Amino acid sequence: MIDKIQSAHDAHGRRIEYLRISITDRCNLRCVYCMPREGLPWIPNTAVLSYEEIRDIVAQLAPLGIQRLRITGGEPTIRPQLAELVALLRAIPGIEDIALSTNGLRMRELGASLRDAGLDRVNISSDSLRPERIADIARRRVAFDPIDAVSAALDAGLRPVKLNVVVMRGVNDDELLDYARLTRELDVHVRFIELMPVGELRLDAERLRVPSDEVLQRIATVGPLVADSGPVRGNGPAAYYRFAGAPGTIGVITPMTHTYCGDCNRVRLTADGRLRTCLFGDHEVDLRAPLRRGEPLAPLFSQALAEKPLEHQLLQLRTGGLLALSQTGG
User: Fold this and answer.
1) Which of 26, 126, 319, 326 would be 35's cystine partner, CB 3.0–4.6 Å?
2) What's the confidence (pLDDT) of residue 314?
3) Rounded Cα distance, 40 and 144, in Å
4) CA atoms within 13 A of residue 241's CA, in its CB half-sphere
5) For residue 24, what are the CA distances in angstroms to 14, 260, 271, 273, 293?
6) pLDDT at 152
7) What is the 3-state secondary structure (H, E, C) of 226-292?
8) Rounded distance, CA 74 to CA 125, Å?
């Protein structure tokens, strides 16, 4: 077996312990910054990893340093029997944390069963609190209440609950204060994400982007913010703040104005079994074919970490061939 301490680090000394697992490239929404209205050429079903294959990959990577997992899509809750996958992953020795990223449409329906299967926590994406605006951004007429989705997750015992918001100037930035006030009422961690130059908004991203420093300045008009002294459980790069006495927090994720590549702790598994070492890079290692041939994955994982780039190239508008965030789950 490869030495765990040595293999858990990439060539730049970063400890890699977090695997994001995309289980489908499909979604029931078409959010303007994430997927084209008409969708994409879908991965053939025969190429998509089965739940058992995902389990087998994670079981081989866990002894090499992977301890934390996030299930993503596309939209992962549209894949049937999702709780079965959660249970398979929870049974793997060494896995300490399993999270889910979802648009929240099925949270009330699935929350309890996912928790019972071993899911720890959830991130819900919603870029508006207003029904008509939600439909406009998602380009689907859906009856969705993000506050109810958050409440459903809390009722199911999934904590912490994070509510992700991609901030777009002139589109939803007039709701910043409404989101911030939620953290005074609910145990929810609202995270404002800078718009990235990917997909249909690639050429318009600079005009639409609201820098996180501006977001915090505007929210501070509601009341003083202090850096959160108790870090919110998670694996991501958000910086957190809190209103005095508030049960929830406000986070900012800054891929454009304050890059956090130096602390990157993750790799990504695509739905068709490619290990992607940077969201916006073009370096990938195929794990599906070797897995199906019965070959060990440890040498390929070590190779991937050795070749993981130091930083992304978003500031140069290079996205490593990524057409839409839905292809890897962000």
Assistant:
1) 326
2) 62
3) 24
4) 19
5) 28, 27, 5, 11, 22
6) 98
7) EECCCCCCCCCCCEEEEECCCCCEEEEECCCCCCCHHHCCEEEECCCCEEECCCCCCCEEECHHHHH
8) 12
Reported pTM? 0.91
CA 330/CA 325 separation, integer angstroms: 5
How many CA atoms does the CB half-sphere of 284 hold within 13 Å?
19
pLDDT at 249: 97
pLDDT for 170: 97
Give the pLDDT means over successive 10-residue stretches in the chain (330 positions): 56 93 95 85 95 98 97 97 98 98 98 98 97 94 94 98 97 98 97 87 88 97 90 77 96 83 89 91 91 98 90 55 57
User: Comparing C-alpha atoms, which of 12, 11, 19 is closest to residue 328?
Assistant: 19
CA-based nearest residue to 135, from 164, 103, 106: 103
| φ/ψ of residue 22, rounded to 5 | -85, 125
Residue with token string 């991130």: 123
Residue 330 token pair: 């962000």
- Token reading at 53: 């294959």
Q: How many CB atoms are closer than 10 A to CB 122?
A: 29
In a 3-state reduction of DSSP, which class is residue 71? strand
pLDDT of residue 323: 55
Give the position of tokens 């993750």.
266
pLDDT value, residue 218: 98
3-state SS, one letter per residue, for 86-124: HHHHHCCCCCCEEEEEECCCCHHHHHHHHHHHCCCEEEE
Look up residue 316 and give its amino acid. Q
- In degrees, to the nearest 5, what angle opens at C-alpha 76 toward C-alphas 75 and 80? 120
